Automatic annotation (TrEMBL):
CDD domains: OAT_like (cd00610). Its cofactor is pyridoxal 5'-phosphate. The keyword Transferase applies. GO terms for molecular function: pyridoxal phosphate binding; transaminase activity. This is Aminotransferase class III-fold pyridoxal phosphate-dependent enzyme. It comes from Maritimibacter fusiformis. InterPro entries: Aminotrans_3, Aminotrans_3_PPA_site, PyrdxlP-dep_Trfase, PyrdxlP-dep_Trfase_major, PyrdxlP-dep_Trfase_small. SUPFAM superfamilies: PLP-dependent transferases. Belongs to the class-III pyridoxal-phosphate-dependent aminotransferase family. Keywords: Aminotransferase, Pyridoxal phosphate, Transferase.
Amino acid sequence: MDGFSDNDISHVVDADKAHVWHHLIQHKPFETVDPRVIVEGKGMRVWDAKGREYLDAVSGGVWTVNVGYGRTQIADAVRDQLVKLNYFAGSAGSIPGALYAEKLIGKMPGMSRVYYCNSGSEANEKAFKMIRQIAHKRYGGKKTKILYRERDYHGGTIGTMSAGGQDERNMQYGPFVPDFVRVPHCMEYRAQWDLSGEAYAERAVQAIEEVILAEGPDTVGGLCLEPITAGGGVITPPEGYWPRVQALCDKYDILLHIDEVVCGIGRTGTWFGYQHYGIRPDFVTMAKGVASGYAAIGVCVTTEAVFEMFKDDAADPLNHFRDISTFGGCTAGPAAALENMRIIEDEGLLENTTKMGERMMGNLQALMEKHRVVGDVRGKGLFQGIELVTDRATKEPVAEKDVGAVVAECSNLGVIIGASNRSVPGLNNVLCFSPALIATPDDIDQITGAVDKALGKVFG
């Protein structure tokens, strides 16, 4: 790191070890080993405090740095905006806030309004609150229930965990908020019914309808789903699933909330994952790739019809959406998001994502032919995963520790990959890949080459 001596870096590591509480990590091992400290990033690569270089195949560890590291034009845009106006509460507008909202809506036919906040969890909370308030405003307080899907994830607050379909993530954090109701997953590889293809899709949506009928259609106000399930196993929906979901929402007057926190802003080769499927959401939430991690920003986008529900009786002082996000008023987020979107457009990164996604899929399928431990390969664009099993016939998952060993071996080879972990009991067996949208053929081959070697070492 420029300007830092070895002694300075050693002090940083010691300070981190002594005082930082890291995310998702058991800290007991840090009593004898140092935590990983990342000190620099450029393009697809990062360097740690020991000077080791890694190819980052998960865009910052949690699917965020979509346009890569070291983008001076984003940093400059943020710096210039902060000097001009760093913050004003979201009850007023700002130049970057207005301009990014306009540009974003231009990528989302049928959507109309942008509500700013500072994280994906918070963006989902906003949609939940809107659905609940609509239930009271229009339905006498009856349509308050929000359905969510097994294996989907929507955030780490108590509210969003109430809509959490990953039981291990929820353990020890309850009790949760009432009137969140789970529906079955749509993962064909681990089908709940002896069906496949469109027949499986039809049955999976029928299962959602069964929940609606059991709860009472007049009590269900919203359905919250990821377009492609992310941390729950990179689950692509079966053919015909999404049009049936849309029809179900139309039939029972249920607001459709699509959580694009992972899939949004180019990750799957379109601006948003839902745009592959021709559906018409009422809410779309996003965060991670919106500014590629150069500033904190979350967004809840709604249709004009939803927006109009909150101003239909201006004389009522409680009728509007009475919510604020303090750092939704920070101008750094939309300033960074504007430049982030310009880069994606100017560099043709949606097209690159599709092209490199095809290469990655081909490479992963080749690994499936070579390694019996690979049971399934799935994904879209530069958002893909492979499920590891001890036996392809029984689909028995490998142990989570063995998945961790593959991740560790890839790291030893200079490639950082992801994996489902501590999420779905007994099924944390999926390796996850989400390289930046700037990935080259050589990057893709290096990632899958490391996985090839790691699978061979761990499983023989």
